[in-house]
Amino acid sequence: MAALITTVLCAQSSCAGRPATVDKGVENADNSRVRLLVSKIEEINSNSTKAFTANFVVDGRVGKNKKFKTLGELVYSAELKKMRIAFLDSVFRSPMTILLQEDRSLKFYLPVDKKLYLDNADTINLKEYVDVRIDYGFLSSLVSGKIPLIPDYTVKQGIAQQDAKNESSKEYYVILENPTLYQTISMKNEIPSKIMLMNKSTKERMEFYLENPVRNNNVLYYKSIRFISLQSGDRINVVFNSLNFNPRINTGRDLTLTVPQNTEIIRFH
């Protein structure tokens, strides 16, 4: 998928030294199909879950050598504009980091270090916390059950590719762009399955694989999300389990953060 879309984009934006050829079985999708696919994405986002709880396992590799594995617990409420994520030690299940988002306000609490970081969802740079180059808004949208879209996008093109195993089936790629990024959303049976971001100036590419979709009434959620940075080699796998949609949430217990008085407070931005 990455090679196909990169080939198409390079052919149109002259990022290669010579004209690129498009893979066999690929054709431009008609405008009505593209509009339908974009509307399907908007429909998924508008029907995203209003509240849910989940446990998860996240593992991966930062760079070429540094591997990690962490357990987690997540509580989310769209109505309250709150989300709480606790990252737990995979052996002892003790809290390592607790994130609380209240509207655009962010709090990161590190119990072992006795430090509380205060930040903002609109200006946060995750590189100040972890060694992974990824946009927080993009990631939080995925976690909350939405298909993230780059800001101020326009639809550049739609591409259809014949399924090699099923002649009656096609996979569609919707290519969006803004002044700095291309975003390609791969869809099969009108369900997004892959997202690729490519920086126009640096050609850096990031891929998100949306796997094991589940439906709860009109809500679509993915039980597995994989992230790959082709340049840095970063790889992150998140698997959700014990999903509970629209549960009764105890806000005083599930969506709060209490820290000891001797906690050091560090403010960003």
Integer tally of domains: 1
CATH architecture: Clam
Main beta sheet strand tally, sense and closure: 15 strands, mixed
Report the top-level CATH class: Mainly Beta
Radius of gyration: 20 Å
Q: Strand-and-helix sequence, N→C?
A: HEHEEEEEEHEEEEEEEHE
The name CATH uses for the topology is outer membrane lipoprotein receptor (LolB), chain A
Q: Report how far apart the termini are.
A: 38 Å
Please name the defining characteristics of this protein.
269 residues; mainly beta; outer membrane lipoprotein receptor (LolB), chain A; single chain
Topology:
Blueprint: H1 2-13, E1 26-28, H2 31-46, E2 51-62, E3 66-77, E4 82-89, E5 95-102, E6 105-110, E7 115-120, H3 136-143, E8 154-163, E9 166-177, E10 181-188, E11 191-199, E12 205-216, E13 219-229, E14 235-245, H4 251-254, E15 264-267
Parallel strand pairs: 7-15
Antiparallel strand pairs: 1-8, 2-3, 2-14, 3-4, 4-5, 5-6, 6-7, 8-9, 9-10, 10-11, 11-12, 12-13, 13-14
Would you give an account of this structure?
The protein is mainly beta and about 270 residues long. It has a single domain (about 25-245), classed as outer membrane lipoprotein receptor (LolB), chain A (Clam). The chain has helices at about 1-15, 30-45, 135-145, 250-255, and strands at about 25-30, 50-60, 65-75, 80-90, 95-100, 105-110, 115-120, 155-165, 165-175, 180-190, 190-200, 205-215, 220-230, 235-245, 265. The chain has a 15-stranded mixed sheet, covered by helices on one side. The protein is globular. Mean pLDDT is about 85; it is low at about 15-25.
